[in-house]
Amino acid sequence: MIDNLKHKDITEKIIGAAFEVHKFLGIGFQEVIYQRALALELSRAGLTFAREVEQDIYYKEMPKPIGTRRADFVVERKVLVELKAITELGDVHQAQLLNYLRAYRLEVGLLLNFGTKQLTFKRLILSQSDRRRRE
């Protein structure tokens, strides 16, 4: 049921902010431009967030990270937001977001694409089985 979506209040504000950015800028800019504009809109919406949040990536039981990755936004310490400015979102982008959710130990993610005539987005939830697979 749609009313029971985890962190629905936060994701609705993020999506609303993204629509505002897309309405004003349209398509054709680099991702970083949309990221900067979205940061302004998230602030206007009263949301706390961190940009370019770096996270270590570990492989199996190795004690040292094998690399790092930076999420575009972590909003309210609950929702990971990844931006794209491409012609079409694919399965690889959703898989990327799920991997980031595992790495950041978050459950809810938004994939926002500013590269199409209409803003497109995917809201993903990391299931219990997805989390166990990587722990």
Description:
The mean pLDDT is 90. This protein has a five-stranded mixed β-sheet, sandwiched between helices. Helix 3 (91-104) links the parallel strand 3 and strand 4 (108-113). Helix 1 crosses helix 2. It has helices at 8-25, 31-44, 91-104, 128-134, and strands spanning 49-57, 67-75, 79-84, 108-113, 120-125. The two termini are 29 Å apart. Helices cover 39% and strands 27% of the residues. With 135 residues, the protein is an alpha+beta fold. The chain is built from four helices and five strands. 25% of the residues are buried.
What is the string of helix and strand elements? HHEEEHEEH
Largest sheet: 5 strands, mixed
What's the helical proportion of residues? 25-40%
Strand % is 25-35%
Poorly predicted runs: none
Give me the Rg, rounded: 15 Å
The geometry reads as globular
Query: Number of DSSP helices?
Result: 4
Placed side by side, the strands forming the largest sheet appear as: 1-2-3-4-5
Structural class: alpha+beta
Straight-line distance between termini: 29 Å
| Structure summary, number of beta strands | 5
